[in-house]
Amino acid sequence: MLHTARPIAARLVLLIALGGLAPALAGAQDTDEGWDDEGWGGDPWAEEQTGWQWYGFIEGAVAPRLQSDPAVNDDFTLAETRLQLEGERRLGDYTANLKGDVWLDGVEDGGRGDLREANLAGRLTAQTDVVVGRQIITWGTGDLVFLNDLFPKDYVAFFSGRSDEYLKAPTDALKLSWFGPLNVDFVWMPRAVPNRFITGERLSYFSPQAGRRVAAPPKLDPRDRDDFGGDSELALRLYQTLNGVEVAGYAYHGFDNQPSARDADGRAYFPRLSSLGASVRAPVLGGIGNVETAYYHGEDDSGRDPDRPNDQWRWLAGYESEPLSDLTLGWQYSLEWIQDHDALLAALPRQQRRYAPDEYRHLLTNRITWQSPRQDLTLSMFTFYSPSDADYYLRPRAQYRFSDSLTGTAGANLFGGEDDWTFHTQLEDNSNLYLRLRYSF
Amino acid sequence: MTPALRLALVLTAGLLTGAAQAQMTDATAIVEAANEASYYAGDDGRSAARMMIVDGDGNRQRRQFTLLRQDVADGGDQRYLVVFSRPADIRGTVFRVEKHVGESDDRWLYLPALDLVKRIAAGDKRTSFVGSHFYYEDISGRGVGEDRHALIETTDDAYIIESTPRDPAAVAFARYRTRIDRDTLLPMRTEYEREDGEVYRRMEITEVETIDGYPTGTETRMTDLDSGGYTVTQFRYSEYDIGLPADIFSERSLRNPPRQWLRRD
Q: Suppose A81 and one of A17, A151, A407, B245 were both cysteines; which one would form an S-S bond, judging by CB atoms 3.0 to 4.6 Å apart?
């Protein structure tokens, strides 16, 4: 019964979404508003605003699976109507920021909410900025490949068809930035904030213990790292730009954002992770080149405990250029090198060895973006391909900006490969096609 | 005032007026002067700007931003910071440029939803600026050395310059004609032509005000004659020589725009 009821619920959500957007579609044709301030909202000519300013959007989204998933009882990875409200208020030298989403979810059946930002940001001294509270933090040079950016990601949103901005998950943190001959960012997260990882509720995944792809129930339920102070995380970045060359050094002391370890009882948890890294980004041959590296010091630095990750070197090299007008091409190569791979293999029970990661995981990515001359239509394709895992992940997308307030997006998340247990192939049955319509206000 | 002093003042004033109206004859010098009048007024400047983008079917889109500019050298390198406030889906986006004359600019874009500082490949400067009919080089200036310039007519109030690209393969036009005001040296109308002489793109300054002593184009219009679409840009609350510190043109300002320099008084 559930199997048939859920897609119907999903479709209902879509209909409500489109119904709500119909007036917006009509409004997209507005032609008469001239230069009067009404057409410009409440911010005429960069005047300093007082009180709360509100912005936001309403979005309808559906993502049917391209095949049925034997593990998940739903034909959709996404079916929702979402409202995002964003508020901003100036308070002297500071700004209070609020951003929250509420949505009606046709896959997880019910109303959902998420507070994405709730912070106070401003200048502490002439040389110091501070952001305290819930915020999104990003650094590093990779394009959808992260080495030194160990802030939380939302892979469920990313793989299921939500907008790219939802790849970054919020974190409760204190961020201090000092600007001098060398710029310093210091981030303290008093409670570890993990990724929004795949639990089996919306997307299926491969379980080496079960030896097959699984989904909820039971959902993957790792031990929380929620001891305020005791489970805190620190992240540091030192950076400077010299003659157009951006150089940065990074350090992190916290926990793996994925529940990559298992305790004696077999329960998943977030193991200790510390890292050191560096990056350089600069113009090269008319494009932008970047290299980045990170050394991950895992909980098991000898590799003898297969239930805990050991040390890794990660490397990334990328290049982006615009060979023709309105066409951008980006390439990346990344390497994950497990340091004690022999010990790891030796410690694994024989039947688990085939699921073990390779010593070297190579990943190639390519991004092709074409924009129409007026930039209302954007076509793009992002390809992940791993020659060592023999798997791939394709993200084709077409986006059309009907007007300043209405944007439509169609795209797909396509996974595949040889072995059921590799990073991308395990998601094969979650391959989906998505359609989103967003009205901004 | 003594008669001698009065005479001296009158003579000096006469000399100055004469100098301003002196006829220039060197085409490249005129183009350089027009370039400085358009893009290098004062040592720095701030302006609020709004664009209305109208496509061939009459659909309108809007962009609103504040522009900060600092000259590293007159007629040479410059720093720009463009902070968008409208429409809602672009609000908070910040664009930073280190303009280098004769070599590629450095460009960065800050996307607030992802807290992402994106470095942009120098690429083509003849692509649309934020979806408008203006190109990047229309906003920040096309290098004077990229074209050959010829003075083809001097009227009572204007110089008419014809420019042809040194590298025709890099651009879509065969030549362009610019009508430069002899008093203000502002390029009041620029028309881009195809090989057969057909004008397909026209930029006009439709409003001029003198601000802090600098004649300023406060409304400009770019028309795409092929589609009938056009973009009108208005600049308001412009100020020059406000003493912008060099360090506000930095990554710090992408994530936390310098409000004290952005707001108008």
A: A17
